[in-house]
Amino acid sequence: PPVPENLEESRAFKTGIMNRTKIMENGKRLRKNWSTSLVALTDHYLLIFKDAKINSHQEENLKPEIAVELGGSLIEWSQGLSSRKNVFQLTTFTGNQILLQEDCSLTAAEWFYSIKSAISKLPKC
Ligand code: I3P
After folding, report:
1. Which of 21, 24, 32, 97 to mutate to test the pocket of ligand 1 (most atoms within 8 A of CB)?
2. From CA 2, how far away is CA 47, in angstroms rounded?
3. Which H helix or E strand runs over 105?
């Protein structure tokens, strides 16, 4: 399905704030640049929005900056990729890699298992 235009259209079933940095794009390493973003989980995408400072009037119209396609993606707890705690990585079949992090380990685990469960419902290829 096409990438949702905005949060309202996305029908996300889980939204929240997380720290994130893209570390690979199309198989090429990127310099880490952590930022705090609104993230939204849909059946097919993890949508990452530009700015965590959102006022509720604009929220519905917010355009995703990154749409991680979940079908065929891999989610793993990161080992040695960051000095931060509770970091997991999402790797797409197209060779994009994003680290996601949240200081609260319970919140991080909720995100991890929600995303993992969404991935497991989609065909792998
Ligand atoms: C990076 C920045 C990141 C850090 C990264 C640094 O430096 O401090 O926060 O990752 O570590 O290189 P810069 O701002 O100069 O780009 P973590 O916070 O995840 O540890 P790394 O190079 O070991 O990945």
Report:
1. 32
2. 12
3. helix 105-120
Closest residue to atom 16 of ligand 1, CA basis: 32
> Rounded to whole angstroms, how far apart are CA atoms 78 and 4?
28
Instruction: Say if strands 35-41 and 14-25 run parallel, antiparallel, or are unpaired.
Output: antiparallel
User: Residue 14 C-alpha to ligand 1 middle, in angstroms?
Assistant: 28
pLDDT band at 3 (very low <50, low <70, confident <90, very high): very high
Contacts of 104 (CB under 8 A, 6+ apart): 86
Give residue-wise pLDDT tens across range 17-73.
Answer: 999 999 999 999 999 999 999 999 999 999 999 865 655 556 666 789 999 999 999
The answer to whether the CB of 14 falls within 8 A of the CB of 41 is yes
